[in-house]
Amino acid sequence: MTTTAGTTTATTTTAPVKTAESARRWVSARVRILLWLLLVMAVALAAVAATTRSVLLRDVDERIDRLLAQETGEFTNFVDQGVDPHTGKKFTDPDPLLRLFLERQYADPDEELLGLVERPGKAPAKKEQSRELRIEHPLAKDTAALSEVFGSSAATGTLHRAQGEVRWAKVAIGASGGRPAAAFVVAFHPAGEQAKADDVFTMLLAISGVALLMTTGIGWAVAGRILKPVRLVRTTAAQLTEQDLTRRIPVQGRDDIAALAETFNGMLDRLERAFAAQREFVDDAGHELRTPITIVRGHLELMGDNPGEREETTRIVMEELDRMSRIVEDLLLLAKAERPDFVTPEPVQLAELTADVFVKARALGDRDWQLAEVADGEAALDPQRITQAMVQLAQNAVQHTVTGQRVSIGSRGSAGEIELYVADSGPGVQAQDAAVIFERFRRGTARRGSRATGAGLGLAIVRAIAEGHGGRVELRPTEGGGATFVLVLPEQESGQQ
């Protein structure tokens, strides 16, 4: 923002901003494939490691529960069946009971076996195993924790101490006959077992890291190999020009990449043919339009002041302009033939359509017009396009016959197809012309009886109309001489197309 003499002018500087979307476009497919592969593998390996740790910890909990249940069960049996060796009778005092039981037990490394005897107003007296404990922070030295366990009404529990977690179970001995209350306590310190599970988890993470590093190298090489044909497609596409469409991609193997290369090569074949046809079409169209333009310009330049000469020149110019107009209209019609709405089928009575074409064709010239045969039934056709094609064939027959010669029009059904035809008794079509007369701007060499010259688009329009109906146009010889042009269309009931 710049302010000068009370006038405020806003100045905005536009700088290219690299958005996240544009940044993604610059990340190659090879890198994206590798990143997705690593992400999936990392998630899978982490899930495996976490699941393994969870299973190990669950096994630790189950083993501790079994151990606590086993120790308390043994003590309970000893209380019920044990005999004081000094008296030969059952124990009546919990003190010798606990002492004798603890002397006969051998605890696991992370396990404590304790005997607690109530002392009024004081912490309970404890009795321990005779062997030395290898636990760093034993429960026996934690007076507050012992008091909590002894005073608890539960048979099992867990102590969460700052020095570490303790899982415990106890068997209470009630006071009787002036004897104090007591309890047998089993304490287990799970930190060691849990540390083993954590060590396994850490080891799995380390192995996963090594696996990811190996996957990075292997994935980079494999992705490069897989995408090599894709890069070749991109390189080939970049080198293609309108003048050079001859490059092709070598196809190796039978996988999806090979199918992609084959599809791309097929597309290039179609493009090459399309460009060749386009160039030929443009050359031919330019030639056809250049001739009437040259004629018009030449006559206008040579036109004098004589009224008769001016009238003749005007007539010639108008004829050439009309011919140019017909060429342009035919070109536009052929361009529309590529559109899906070029043909609009509707239910049509074949007999009525054939009769209408016959009536319209009779006005094209003084010939021996004959309605040879008429098909029965109804079909899904575009009556306007079919009429246009048949009239064009009739016009073609008129141009290749003379006054009084026979021209037949008819329709018939044949093997699931509909045939509409125009047969003339003219000179026919020479063998070298039969393969090209349906192409644009191609004419036959035999034009006896022709009174007008066209651009060679009429039969191309007929073929486009036939193909628009899913059919074809055929050239057949006429019995007795001449040519028969047949529209062969699939026999479809109305409403199916």
Please explain how this structure is put together.
With 497 residues, the protein is an alpha+beta fold. The chain has 10 helices and 14 strands. The protein folds into 3 domains: 25-239, no CATH class; 256-335, Orthogonal Bundle (Helix Hairpins), CATH 1.10.287.130; 341-490, Histidine kinase-like ATPase, C-terminal domain (Heat Shock Protein 90, 2-Layer Sandwich), CATH 3.30.565.10. The chain has helices at 20-26, 29-81, 94-103, 143-151, 191-239, 256-302, 307-336, 350-361, 383-399, 458-468; strands at residues 2-4, 7-9, 111-117, 125-128, 156-161, 164-173, 182-188, 346-349, 368-371, 378-381, 406-414, 417-424, 472-477, 483-490. Helix 2 packs antiparallel against helix 5 and helix 5 packs parallel to helix 6. Mean pLDDT is 81; it is low at 1-18 and 446-452.
Essential attributes:
497 residues, alpha+beta, Helix Hairpins, Heat Shock Protein 90, 3 domains, five-stranded mixed beta sheet, rod-shaped, disordered N terminus
The geometry reads as rod-shaped
Strand content: 15-25%
- Strands ordered across the widest β-sheet: 4-3-7-6-5
SSE series: EEHHHEEHEEEHHHEHEEHEEHEE
Number of separate strands: 14
The span between the termini is: 67 Å
Radius of gyration: 51 Å
The biggest sheet, with number of strands, parallel, antiparallel or mixed sense and barrel status, is: 5 strands, antiparallel
Helix content, binned percent? 40-55%
The overall pLDDT, averaged over residues, is: 81
List the uncertain runs. Answer: 1-18, 446-452
